[in-house]
């Protein structure tokens, strides 16, 4: 659950029981208790640590790796055909190594294009008979998998597009692959045209496009309890700003424009929302610059008497640090060495070990996580203790 308010993820067993996603927890609390469903709060620290361990293991199996999301990674096997003779076995080797070292079950899919590799990964996890590993290496294997996939399961096909396709009688991934490119281009977009071409084995997404950095980065969350204090709101916004700047540094981006907002609950009698855009004279990824920007606009956002329910910070215009053009009259104060030191300490000793002073020490405004599972791999206090006598 996110903020102990809404069900955001459901395991297969709970799904078969009928537990819906995105349902307010209080509405189905008695149902969950009646059936003995285990409820857990979002444990971001544990997820991030396990993800990092898993990605490091996956990276050992290829020279070129792209971490696509917290639980998904692409490997590019260039000139590996001479080394690997059994791709199924290689996939099982990857799964076995991850399970042995992290106890995380994964699916492995191989394909000649990124979209077909995603289709193979879907088959490895969701379709019967594959046992965690699927390979698309021929027309026959491609058709077999695509015929068993609904069109909505194709990478890049969202809900709206899948509904439009289904209304035209296109229900499976295989049927989508057979639609003429001219029709796809005319009725949909260039992106969908690329998807269909990739389903037919034509590489349209090169490695750089798959690894394209995010164009916007946001950190936003509702509070565990309402916030009506100026300094508490500032601390929350500065922490969101620190998260955004760290994500920007991770993809070698600098921030040109920053969106800062806070609001009460839309269910309140008086709904208050205020957002402002701060433009930096020189693009930056420095957490201190972000904190100063928040301090600069906070007086215009804060409203006395308002019980704030949600706030957030977003980098809405990013540029690459590798190709940044400096201003002749304004110095670059981003101080990459300082930020590298900050990230290194926090990565080594845990997020929040070192932070901006205006983030404050008290975190009563933090999200509610009453059902938090232990952070076995990232917190000293949560490491299991064994007493031998």
UniProtKB/TrEMBL annotation:
Residues 1-158 form the UmuC domain. InterPro entries: DNA/RNA_pol_sf (IPR043502), DNA_pol_Y-fam_little_finger (IPR017961), DNA_polymerase-Y (IPR050116), DUF4113 (IPR025188), Rev_trsase/Diguanyl_cyclase (IPR043128), UmuC (IPR001126). One of its GO terms (molecular function) is damaged DNA binding. CDD domains: PolY_Pol_V_umuC. Pfam families: DUF4113, IMS, IMS_C. GO terms for biological process: DNA repair; error-prone translesion synthesis; SOS response. Keywords: DNA damage, DNA repair, SOS mutagenesis, SOS response. GO terms for cellular component: cytosol. Belongs to the DNA polymerase type-Y family. This is DNA polymerase V.
């Amino acid at each position: 659950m996110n903020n102990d308010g809404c069900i955001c993820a459901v395991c297969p067993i709970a799904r078969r029981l009928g537990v819906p996603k995105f349902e307010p927890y209080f509405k189905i609390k008695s149902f969950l208790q009646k059936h003995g469903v285990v409820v857990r709060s979002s444990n971001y620290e544990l997820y991030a640590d396990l993800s990092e361990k898993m990605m490091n293991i996956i990276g050992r199996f290829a020279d070129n790796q792209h971490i696509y999301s917290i639980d998904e990674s692409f490997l590019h096997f260039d000139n590996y055909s001479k080394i690997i003779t059994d791709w199924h076995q290689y996939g099982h080797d990857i799964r076995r190594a991850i399970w042995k070292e992290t106890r995380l079950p994964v699916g492995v899919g191989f394909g000649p294009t990124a979209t077909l590799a995603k289709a193979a990964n879907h088959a490895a996890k969701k379709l019967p008979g594959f046992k965690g590993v699927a390979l698309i290496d021929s027309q026959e294997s491609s058709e077999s998998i695509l015929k068993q996939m609904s069109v909505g399961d194709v990478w890049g096909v969202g809900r709206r597009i899948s509904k439009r396709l289904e209304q035209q009688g296109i229900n499976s991934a295989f049927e989508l692959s057979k639609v003429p490119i001219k029709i796809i281009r005319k009725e949909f977009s260039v992106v969908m045209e690329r998807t269909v071409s990739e389903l037919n084995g034509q590489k349209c997404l090169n490695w750089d496009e798959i690894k394209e950095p995010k164009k916007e980065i946001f950190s936003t969350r509702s509070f565990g309890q309402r916030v009506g204090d100026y300094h508490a709101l500032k601390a929350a916004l500065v922490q969101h700003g620190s998260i955004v700047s760290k994500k920007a540094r991770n993809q070698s981006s600098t921030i040109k424009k920053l969106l800062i907002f806070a609001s009460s609950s839309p269910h309140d009698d008086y709904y208050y929302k205020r957002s402002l855009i701060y433009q930096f004279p020189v693009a930056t990824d420095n957490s201190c610059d972000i904190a100063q920007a928040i301090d600069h606009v906070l007086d215009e956002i804060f409203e006395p008497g308002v019980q704030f329910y949600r706030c957030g910070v977003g980098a809405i215009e990013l540029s690459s640090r590798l190709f940044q053009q400096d201003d002749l009259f304004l110095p670059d104060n981003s101080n990459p060495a300082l930020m590298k030191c900050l990230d290194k300490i926090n990565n080594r000793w845990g997020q929040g070990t070192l932070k901006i002073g205006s983030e404050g020490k008290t975190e009563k405004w933090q999200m509610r996580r009453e059902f938090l599972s232990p952070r076995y791999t990232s917190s000293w206090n949560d490491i299991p203790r064994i007493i031998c006598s």
